[in-house]
Structures are given as C-alpha cells and as structure tokens.
Sequence to fold (563 residues):
Amino acid sequence: MNNYDIAEHFSMLSKLMDIHGESSFKSKFYSIAAYHIENLPAQAVEMEDAELFSQKGIGESTGKKIREIEQTGKLALLEKYIAATPPGVLEMMNIKGLGPKKIAVIWKEMGIETLGELEYACQENRLAAMKGFGVKTQTAILENIGYYQKNQGLHLWAEVEALSKELCTRLSTDFPEHRFSITGAVRRQNEIVEFVEIVTDLPSDLLRKQFSGVSDVVFDEEPNNILVVRIPGHPFIRFYLTSPEAFYHTLFFSTGSSEFIKAFLERYTVPSEPADEETIFSANGLANIPPALRETATMLEYAADGVLDELITTADIKGIIHSHSTWSDGLDKIETMAKVARDQGFQYLVISDHSQAAYYAQGLSPERIAAQHQEIEALNQKFAPFRIFKSIEADILGDGSLDYNENILRTFDLVIASVHSNLKMSQEKAMERVLKAIRNPYTTILGHPTGRLLLSRPGYPVDHKEIIDTCAENDVVIEINAHPRRLDMDWRWIEYAMEKGVLLSVDPDAHSVFGFRDIYYGVMSAQKGGLTPAYNLSSFTLAEFEAFLQKQALKRERLRTMS
Fold:
C-alpha cells in the first residue's frame, strides 16, 4: 500500500462527505490530509509512528487512519459513506466535470442514481435546466460519459507495470523453482493496458491455491492454457501457462502484438524450445528486437537489415528539463530541487514555472520573474558546476501568441510553450494556435503537444505531421512529457520526428523532487517510438546543452534583426 493508494482513500472520503452534505470543514480536512499524505518524504508504511504522526498535516488522528488502511486495506469511516451511496452515484465520481456538489444535485434533487439515467437525462436536455449546469456543461458531461464508457476496463501502464512487478516478485519468492515473466502489452510498454499478463511454468492448481484466499476471486479458463484471475477493483490477471522447456516460446508469442506475430510467422519460424528469445531472432538472421518495439510489422524489416539503434535508457538522461517550484504551483523550493537533482547525478536543472496567464497556478508576473532570476543566479554560484537554467512554461494564448512580450521572453535561457486553456478546439483552431507558437522565435520547446490526459481527456485534435514539419523548419524541440497521465507527444510519432531531424525531449514536468521519478515513464514511452539518446535534448551533457542554447540565441537574434 503506497502513499498514493492511501491518499486516494482520504480524497474519496472528502468527496463523499461533500456529496452527503457534511460540513465543508470536515470534508476539507480530509482533502488536505490526502494532499499531505501524497507528498510525504517517504512511504508511510516504512515510517515509525512517531515520525509519521509528526509530519506536516498528519498528526495522531490522521496517522491512525493511515495505519488502519495499511493493516486492513480499508478505512471504516469511508466504508460507512460508501455503503450509504448508490453504486451508480459512486461511478459518477469518475466522470470529468462532475464534482461532489453537482453529483449531489443529480442524485438528491433529480433522483438520478446511475450513469445510464444521467446519460438519458442529458439527451433529454433535463440537466441543462438545473441551476449550476447549463447547456455547455450538459454537453461536456455527455461527452465525458461516452469517453469514460469507451475506456472502461483500461488502465495506465505505470499502474499496471508496478502491480505486475510486485506480483512476479511475490510469486518468485513463494515458488523459487519456477519462472515468472511479465508479457503482453505491459511488456511492450503500451501507455494503456487492459490486463496484467504473466508467463509462468507454475501449474494451474498451485496458482489457484495462491489466490484462493482472496475475497471474491474468480478463475476463468481460456483457450491455449490461459488462466484468468479476476479480483474486484483490480486489473484482471492473465497467466499464460507453459512448460519449462517452452517458456521462451510462450513468452515470445504472448509478448508481440497480433500484427507483429502474424508478420513474423509469414516469413520466419520459431523453434519449439528456444533457449531464450534472442535465439528466435538470430536463428532467422534478425537483429534482436526489444519487447517495446514488437508492435508493428515494419520493425521486422529494420531487424532484417542489421543491428537496431540503441534505445534511450534512464541512464542517458543528463538533465531535468521542465520543472515547477514554489514560485508557481510546485511543492519544493528551487534550492531543494537543485540539490536533489545534483545528488541524483544530473548535471543541470531547468526551472520552468507557469506564466502569468496561469493565475490558478500562481503564474509569474514580470516583477516576480526578475526576483526569481536573481535567486537562480545566486544558487548557480553556490551549486557550480551544476547549473540551473532560467525558463518559463509560457501559456500559448488563444491567438497563438506567448504569454509575455519580447522584452520579458528574451530574459529566459529557454521557453517551453504549452496550451493550458480553452482546450475544446476544432483541429483548424488548434493548429492555427499551435503553429503560430512554434513559429515564435522565442519558443524553444513545444510542451505536451496535444494536452491529453490518458483515460481522462483525449486532447485537442492536431495534425502531428504538420506540427513536426513546422518544428523542423523552426528548430523547435518537441516534448515527450513523462508524466504517466500525459506521455505526450505520443510515441507513434517519434520515428517521423527523428526522420525530419527534430529533437525530442523527455521531460518530467516535475512539481516536486519526487516528480523526477516520472522520467522513467517518459523513457519507457520513448523506447516504444525508437528514440535514441542523440535525438533527445535532455540527454545532452551540460556543455552540449549550453551549446544548444547558444545556437538558439543566435537564431533568435538573426530572426529579430531580419524583422
């Protein structure tokens, strides 16, 4: 049970208390507790009571509830509210745009208790007539219901990969004489997955026995020796049962996508008892294809031509680009972030707090920018040779311009341009807005190019090819935002970007020092697209990064004098 899981109990309790009309003071207390739990300096389960109870925003009362969740997997007070809430109302909490107050109106004033009823009410235009809603809100809720229903049963790769690793470790400990390997879409590092998938030579009866004590567990037998374990509230687990001799044969077939495996079998053969997966490729005269790349038939053509390029790894990341401090909506001071980044082996840190249009995130006014730059200059003297770069995540405004005038923009070492507002755009409007920002001579990096949030928001529609082509023409880098809910730019466009000579940049978009860890997810996504270190800006050494920025400055000056 990690801090995020525990915090989710408190967050849900706060929302349910609001839905049930409890005092706002009580509900806010648990919302604040969730925030502090999520941002504890270590996992709560690893902390002694005295240390945990003394943490900011915790205390003995909250600390005891944390221990209750760790020991039982539940929070009694939360269970009380869940029991008093119709299941359909609980499900409404998953719909974007429906906060507790709106759900309370839908349930208590309109008598709607299921998503189906809510969808029908929207279609009949009944929601628009309710106070606090309106036609636009009704339309958005109807769209979000459709999006939620479409993605039911799907999960973020980051969540399922962690669960898969934990399960394999536990099974390997309990059955050391048997083998277990993650496979399927999880092993291919797909950003969205449906199942935990594991290959094992452990007999079915022992697997069943291992899970038999789990509440409400259901076992399903599928063709080709697949055992599915269904546990309520968790991703389904698919076990591919095989013999020790055929372990890698099964691993190979269960790892590749259907397109990849079909294309492979049309041209090549697979030994029935290979010693490892590399043997399967070498026996057919192919370079070894990493699991992440076993998605399309095209990869077989590359493998037939010789050795594949070395994929980027987390060790290749030399600097933290795109991070937020307490100057805007971050949780840590610049000095703290710089120290942690340096101590973790990074050579530089790019501080890119929000610009003034992002008032909700304490975006920086010109006066605060000047003060922040003074702080950074002082810290650079303290931390040398480690370096902190002055940046900003400048909002791309509705007309495509950046959030500051030229005099302010030229004070930064680099500018990350991102869309944060008015996300409901036609493709024509979105492209007009984004392309204008790319052509701005002060734009260094295009941040999270579509604004998507996986399983929550599809992002605004764009023509990826035109964006990449325009970035190539203007020497603009495209971000691969490493947050596991973004992973934006999508990996499917990385190869085209490299073909066009466009640099990508795996950036954590860190809002605390703990956010540095998201680099891992960005790298895993980048591997799927075949990204190499040479095409990744955050893989540049400090000297290389400084040379890159000098080249960008000369480009801006040339364009400025031309105009």
